[in-house]
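== Sequence, structure tokens ==
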Amino acid sequence: MLSSFTAPRQVKIGDAAAFVGTTPRAIRHYHEIGLLPEPVRGGDDRRRYGYEDMIRLLWIRRMADAGIALDDIRDAFADRASADTDTDTDGGDGDGDGDGDGDGIAETLERLEETLLAQEAELRRQRTAVQRMRTEGSRMGLLSEFVTSRLKGLPEGSLRQADLDSLLVTERIFGPLGAAVQAGRFIALATHPDLREESDRVDAAEEALDDTIAVDDPRVAQVAAERHAFEKALHAAIEHSGLAASDDALFDSWDTVQPAAADEGEDEADQSSGGAQKAMSAFEAVGKMPYDFSPARLRCMELAEELAAQESTAP
């Protein structure tokens, strides 16, 4: 330092902020929450900061950059001040605590480390999800890997948005295993154009049963019979293609995935698609997931189920 240069004994808030690497607004906030004592003021009634103020500001800045909450920083300074007071009262130089921060800051740092570890895990999960979205396609990549692994090999574009929507809802209610089983249905539709065409026709007939149709309208029973016939044909195609047998293998593979996931404290198989969300029961879902079905359409669904039940119990 040049001998002709004399350092200021006190600086204004702008200079203090610039030196520390923060903003005047942040320093004012430190004052408001009691983290930084109010400094002396000059003749112009503006704050003036001396050496001790700057030291404290530098420590605050470093601790904040490390991710420590301002309230915890304030507590740490309070603990240190208390320790210094105790030392003065004892008439000694302390008991070897070193920086005098006490147990409070140690507990804060322990909590902070746990938080950072959780954030790292969440970032890894999000990165895996983004990678899968790039690989599988944006929408499909958001489903569990357990589900998308069963859909691999299908021609591009063979799965419709409505199919992915249905898988998403099923996974939310019944988990990845339920959605993976349902995926067999969409595989059959994707590989059997005639069934896909019939599915579209029956779906359109059901959608036509809107609020203008009475529940006892003959069309309701007719569409229910068409739905039942289609489901029989689809089930036969699934059986013939071997998809039903692969369903059994799904349960075995799920059993091998689940124990490992439980050991990790979360479902790793579902980790890349928001695995923190747990599946809900069908009963819960009924009251939380809205479906815009008219009374006529609901009656059609009931009749189709009755037809299936009658056929299953017939000799």
Notes: Residues 76 and 104 are 7 Å apart (CA to CA). The domain at 13-103 is CATH 1.10.1660.10 (Multidrug-efflux Transporter Regulator; Chain: A; Domain 2). The radius of gyration is 33 Å.
